[in-house]
Specification:
The protein folds into two domains: 373 residues, Up-down Bundle (Growth Hormone, Chain: A), CATH 1.20.1250; 51 residues. By secondary structure, it is mainly alpha-helical. Helix 3 runs antiparallel to helix 4, helix 5 runs antiparallel to helix 16 and helix 11 packs parallel to helix 16. 82% of the residues lie in helices and 0% in strands. The chain is built from 17 helices and no strands.
């Protein structure tokens, strides 16, 4: 149930962005910060919260994360300005970081290795089913009840998850209850990753380049420091010494960096360029998530019976083909053709995600489940933030800080194609990296 919260909210919110922009008077670049602020806080805080969860208990941290996500989602529905909405979304991301760093670790602890792909496939399928339902219900909610109803629905779902967790999950997991907390390492990690992600999202200004360079330098120093720390917040030795784990998490980073901005760009394209209603735009976008949900369920089972890394590599190659086809979308592209392109993306992503997660969680020992879960989640959210950074940078270069109008459709299409070209190149590199771990 918890796995459905975030993807439902994210995919539903993409359909509501044009309405939010109109009501709160936001330009395209600023509206991009509504999803980007959430991803930024989730990516930065996931690893520190996973470390705290090992000390205080994963179940306890999980419940607090769901509670925080629920509260700030409700407050997001009450926002009266763009700045207020972005702030609440940032805090919602903190709650998600608590969930992501613990949920997958709890699931992996409960399932024997020979059935892990099956369980992770179900979990991933739930995520993609929520992604499929998000655009449909997001479009309906936005069109008939207003965009704020999306946040209130997420709040109601969050309350149900809290009740279910308290009633059904009794066991607690503490891997390192007596170890200390690495405060200095946490501050270095948070500051460095924040600077890199924030700076990348503000490209191509000189300040943004400076932030990325400074953030990368801080992360380098963080890595050197963690190698000597007695109780590191992030086990750098495990990351560097475990080749399968390292390449699998980096493959996830590249895959999400190449794909996440697709729904954001196509939502703007379908509603602002093609003139579709939120409901009809959701029906077009749903094709990708439906195929992902079915494929992830099947690929999870397959990853228990055949090399999961090969399945993941094949999936990423199909994603690259789907992204390449999107580079040729125009103002007159038939909707059936667009849905076929999205279905290709869904097929590739479904083949990649469950097997890749199985490889990540199976490549470490039980004591490192929280770290592996949080690292995978951080790579996913960092990739998503980078993807939004690519989208915002391209839109800033092609449109600037202006509101969309029919006169700017050509510029909008230019920016969208630029995003898809960059993402295709990224995904091609990801195919090579995913294949490298098999050797």
């Amino acid at each position: 149930m918890a796995s459905s919260l975030v993807p439902f909210m994210g995919s539903a919110l993409n359909l509501a962005l044009p309405y939010i922009n109109k009501e709160l008077s936001l330009d395209v670049v600023t509206s991009g910060w509504i999803p980007a602020s959430y991803m930024l806080s989730t990516a930065v805080l996931q690893v520190p919260f996973a470390r705290i969860a090992d000390m205080m208990g994963r179940r306890r941290m999980f419940i607090r994360g769901v509670a925080a996500f629920t509260l700030f989602s409700i407050l997001s529905g009450l926002a009266r300005s763009g700045a207020e909405l972005i702030a609440w979304r940032f805090l919602s991301g903190a709650g998600s970081a608590m969930m992501f760093g613990t949920g997958m670790a709890m699931l992996t602890s409960l399932v024997p290795p020979q059935r892990r792909g099956w369980a992770l496939g179900i979990n991933t399928s739930v995520v993609y089913t929520s992604l499929a339902l998000g655009p449909l219900f997001g479009g309906l909610f936005t069109q008939y009840m207003g965009w704020r109803s999306i946040f209130w629905t997420a709040g109601i779902m969050g309350l149900a998850v809290i009740a279910g967790t308290l009633a059904a999950i009794r066991e607690e997991w503490k891997e390192k209850p007596s170890a200390g907390f690495d405060t200095l390492g946490t501050l270095m990690y948070t500051a460095g990753l924040f600077a890199v992600i924030y700076g990348f999202s503000r490209m191509p200004s000189a300040v943004s380049f400076g932030l990325v360079i400074c953030g990368a330098a801080v992360l380098f120093l963080f890595g050197r420091y963690e190698l000597k720390a007695g109780s590191p917040v992030f086990n750098v030795r495990e990351f560097l010494g475990n080749r399968i784990f390292r390449l699998s998490t980096l493959s996830a980073l590249i895959n999400y960096a190449a794909t996440f901005a697709v729904s954001f760009m196509l939502s703007l394209y379908l509603q602002d360029v093609r003139g579709l209603s939120p409901r009809d735009a959701g029906l077009v976008l749903i094709s990708q998530s439906v195929v992902m949900a079915v494929t992830a369920l099947v690929s999870g089972r397959l990853s228990d019976r055949m090399p999961a890394s090969r399945l993941a590599t094949a999936g990423m190659a199909i994603v690259a083909l789907g992204l390449l086809s999107l580079c040729f979308v125009s103002e007159s592209t038939p909707f059936a053709a667009l849905m076929l392109m999205l279905a290709c993306l869904g097929l590739g992503f479904g083949l990649f995600s469950s097997p890749n997660t199985n490889v990540i969680m199976s490549s470490v020992g039980k004591a490192h489940y929280s770290m592996a879960s949080a690292t995978a989640g951080t790579m996913r959210l960092t990739g998503q933030a980078f993807s939004m950074g690519i989208a915002l940078m391209a839109m800033s270069m092609s449109l600037g800080s202006v509101r969309l109008s029919p006169a700017l459709h050509a510029d909008m299409l230019y920016g969208m194609r630029l995003v898809f070209i960059i993402c295709t190149a990224l995904c091609a590199g990801g195919v090579w990296m995913s294949a490298a771990r098999s050797r």
